[in-house]
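Course exercise 7: structure representation. Students receive a sequence record and must write out the corresponding structure in token form. The form below is the worked example handed out in class, using Right-handed parallel beta-helix repeat-containing protein (506 residues). Read each field label carefully; the graders check that inputs and outputs are placed in the correct fields and that the protein name is recorded exactly as given.

STUDENT ID: A-19
EXERCISE PROTEIN: Right-handed parallel beta-helix repeat-containing protein
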Amino acid sequence: MKKITALLTVLMMCMTFGADFVYAADSNSARNAVLQIRKEIDSHKSNIQSKNGELFKLTPEEIAEADFKNYDTSSVLLGTDLYEFSAGSVSNDIKGKDGTINTLAPNEYKVHSTIKYGKYPSIFNSDTVIKTSGGKRATLVADYSDDVPSYQIVKNVENLYVENIDFENFPMIKFENCDNIIFNNCSFSNFENNGIVFRDCSNIAILNSKFTNCGNQISDSSNSGYSIRIVGDAQSPAENVLIENCTFENSCGKTISFVGDVDDYVIRNNTINNSVWGAIDYWTPTVSGKYADVIENNVCKNIGFGKPSVNDTNALTSGVGCAAIFAGMGTSLPNTIVKNNVVQNCVETGIEGPYELVYHNTVKNTGENSVARYTGSTEAIYIKLTTEFEQKYIGNTIETRGLRCFSSYSNRDDEYKGIYILNNSMNLENTDASIACNYTRSDIEINCKKIKKIVIENNTGMMKDKKSVNIYTDKGYVMDYFSIHNPCMIGSVPEKARYCFNINNN
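STUDENT ANSWER:
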């Protein structure tokens, strides 16, 4: 195997140059290794999407009866000895500006730049495997000198695999126009601005990693504090994204953020705790509908309860933006499934957006602490209507002291396709002193001018002594199909429907 070259000697290693730190010494070997890892990731992700994607071929009744207990593809083998390389010897190019190796402690190294700048080596390069041997870890601590800008962008890198590395005290790590970037079993702690950012990148995987206190020095909460942010546009969409088995503690902004054209993604088996703002956030997303995009098995706790940066005074008052799983207005997310997620203790909405299927989620305690951080949107599930497809909300478990279990509102003249609310368990509890609820409460309220179909059936736990379901449409509008069949008290309903299957209060 060739010696480490300037292109690939990307990190400061320990004094002995022994087995503590290993990375690929040959670009062809490294590239082949990364491509093999990518192949495994894509196969794993495709299996997830195909299993969930089958749901969209079923009728609502078949979806309600589907059983996913035996479905588990959470184990994907990455970073084994198959991808471990011997460094051989080390060239002088890894040395610091003064020609010495800067070692803070055993397995802990100063990093002077994330990109090649002056005499400093870069961390990330194309066709590179960076990892420790024998399952050991290495800590990289940002130590930018005055002549090195803290805001650096890694551009045009492809085929990079990083494993068992702990990154500490960086401003942020940002990739732009990069392809096939994989982080496995890494950590990102005490980042000043954001954690890790991808703009106009594709084939991204963040696996088995931990993010703690990202954005701890931010001053503008609208553009900072994200643990992971992925941004795409029409010319360079961010496609093929997997974020799986990661933990996030105290994101000082929103935890996972997708912006613009982001497609073909899976966000799965992650735990998010104590975010200052939202947990999983899609701001003006654009998806093609060609893929079964999946958000499943994530646990989102204490959303809006995190510790903000000392510079972020907005977090002390406003609770707007503290939804757990959220997609922005004016969007549509066809072929998107939100399944088996848990939301517990959330200042704003639990699940909000124009998803095609929201299935078997558990949402508890939305609207919590909304007196201290006021927001008028404290529903467990808020349905953003779309004209493109029927939306299905099936088998969810809801316990909330917020405004409603299900809510939807639009004042547009569009004619929406339809909503199914089936087999959900609801418990709209009494409010207490910590909950701001300034509107009439009900289990379900749908308020829009025109919608073709509404089916609300076989839900349990709804109120029988108060108006539990209220549906408002334009006076004189004729729906195609309308059915309500639940043990509850029915309030306002549409005047006309071409086919009314049932209106039953039992």
